[in-house]
């Protein structure tokens, strides 16, 4: 198994020579400040929550009707008939509040 990983790494390095250098520069050999603590994770967590918001929002948009007559019926349709629609809707509505909480925690660490 280790030999296959080495072969793949060699193959990838031959085709993308800057990938390893950039990985080392930005990820593996990145110097962190001495006062680095767990509060810094809220920056990455805010990006994760934002991506979840975007994905669930696009997913909900596929089933939503924006007209005044059909808006409530489309939300009912999402909650009852769309596969896992209720989870997606609640993840989206809860994620909005979670995003602001996480961003404020990151800003005021």
The SS-based structural class is mainly alpha
- Gyration radius, to the nearest Å? 22 Å
Count of runs of 4 or more consecutive helical residues: 5
Distance from N terminus to C terminus (CA atoms, Å) equals 43 Å
What is the H-and-E element order?
HHHHH
Mean pLDDT: 87
Q: Would you count the extended β strands for me?
A: 0
Main sheet record: none
Helix content: over 70%
In terms of DSSP E residues, the strand content is under 5%
- What is the number of domains? 2
Form type: flat
What is the element layout, followed by pairings?
Layout: H1 2-15, H2 17-28, H3 41-61, H4 71-80, H5 85-107
Helix pairs in contact: 1-2, 3-5
Structure at a glance:
The chain has 109 residues and is mainly alpha-helical. 73% of the residues lie in helices and 0% in strands.
Fill in the keyword field for this structure:
109 residues, mainly alpha, 2 domains, flat
Description:
This protein is mostly helical and 109 residues long. It folds into two domains: 1-31, no CATH class; 38-107, no CATH class. It is 73% helix and 0% strand. The protein has five helices and no strands. The chain has helices at residues 2-15, 17-28, 41-61, 71-80, 85-107. The longest helix has 23 residues, at 85-107. The N and C termini lie far apart (43 Å). The mean pLDDT is 87.
